Fold each of these.
Amino acid sequence: MYFAHLFKQADNLWLYDCKTLVIVFYSSCDVCAHWDPPRCRDPCGAKIYAKNISCNRSKLLVVVLVFCTAMITALAQVEDNFGADPGCRDPWTTEWTRDQQDCAKVHFCVQGKRYWTIQCNDSRIWSNVGHACVEPMSQWDDCNQVMTTPAINDERCVNPSGMNPDPDNCAQFLACNNKTVVATMNCPENTLFSTRNNTCELSFLVAEECTSRNIPSHIVITTASPIIDKPCEGTSNGDVADSTHCGRFYKCNYGRVVARIKCPANSAFNAEKRKCDWRSAVDCGDRPVLQ
């Protein structure tokens, strides 16, 4: 009998749990895709085959069920933050996460790495529900556990659970949950909320669609070409492949590069999927892959 926990060499994202001829694989949700038979490895000396895949994004884990010599494994799960920085919860996405010790601070994390920390102004605190700085002890204060219930079935929540335009202010938008406004948020400087894609865009691109929604006087509307960083040409927001390295990509925000990010081990950036993928699934051309 053989029982051990082994990590695949050069790839600490995979954990093998071996007992006799039974193997269980774990991976992150980022690789929740069709199992690639050539990637099968056998630390226990038994041939393995893909059985099925299930994804549980709430725990940031994918459990891949395999069987060895006709023996089916039992499902199990392990908790692992995959080396995420303190304060960053999800190592596979971009997120704003409140500081565990100071409710007035919020961290901007990209794939588990903390890039910067913002302090809420005017004694406000960060609301995880509203994804915004809110007044302490207000109905949106989920830090002090004093959340109250605002008016339900709010007619402004055309999208029952999601972002909606503020009918009175084109530079603001409403975060709704089950037809209840949980937060009113401001767009970044010189941007307005677009109803075309439910996000804040450069003011001159949205001004015409504001119609009855008021444009605040501090918003500058100009048709002058905005500053665009070269890697972000052709896109405004999102992830863009690095033309010099297959294992890296740029994160663009309104045409500006906010981060250059390295994909996890044994992966490369898939420009079509706009995310890191198995190296075997990415055509790197003559771009280097090794970190």
Amino acid sequence: MDAMRRRMGPFELLLASPRQVKAIESSDGRHFFYVFQIVTQSNKLALNTECTLRIDNSETLVTTINLDKNRVTIRSAIEIPLEAAEYMLIIYPWFLYQRLQTALESLLEEDSYCVDTALRLFGKIPPDRRPTSLQLPHAELNARQREAVQLCSDRNLAFIWGPPGTGKTTTLGHILTELMKQEKRLLVTSTTNAAIDQALAHLAELGDAQPTLVSGRIVRVGQTEAPTFGASTNEVKNRLHAETREKIEALRSLQNERYGQITPCDLILEKLQADTQQLDLFDRVELKTLTSQDLRPIFSENYLQYVLNLPTKR
């Protein structure tokens, strides 16, 4: 990096006509956005590049946000004066190399980069293997195909190879159903849509995959003209929304039913309260009895008979 800096000097672009666009508060502080006219054109200017903006005799770090013909939008952590005599954008050609070097140095510190997986992929370290028991019989497969399913179940990295017509896509369908049965999350990708369509078609033919398809746990992302077997994003969304709407309607129906029971309950309470107000310590007052007609709007028929048969002293 030091040799690159000595060999390549910075590029300077003259800017003019600054205009503040907006200011935004974020978790890492306040940012100001400005649009400048580019006086000196250069192919060295790129998006999301950290540069130095020289304003007369002062300098500040900025980032290019948008390029539009002869204009550039930059982001700054400080306010930029709009009446300065000169604005010079200084681009350092080693900026991307420095960012790459920083990213490479962080590989050993961040687990999210999955360095071990990358090294296994290129054969630098062997894959992990843990013997497992298959959850499905896979009776439709031949011995070699079942070996492939077992291999993918046992290892965290596996390559399945075979000449055309040997049933690789069929085997893939069984691999997917097996791993789903083991409650693993899967992402199937390919360089072509056709390959994904074929994999989905073979998966849909397997009875073991039907519950997962119907439940919306298999989603076909992206545009395709091929059958999606109810797994396209819109189909899954509409199906799940339909189930939610049915539940909402059922709850509304139950809510209306409960509201319908409130009025009869209020009438019964009024009758009981009226009776208690007539009680006298010395005079016997004949109390009214609740009838089945009073209670029928509140209780089901079976429970109504149970209530009516309760002892009067209870």
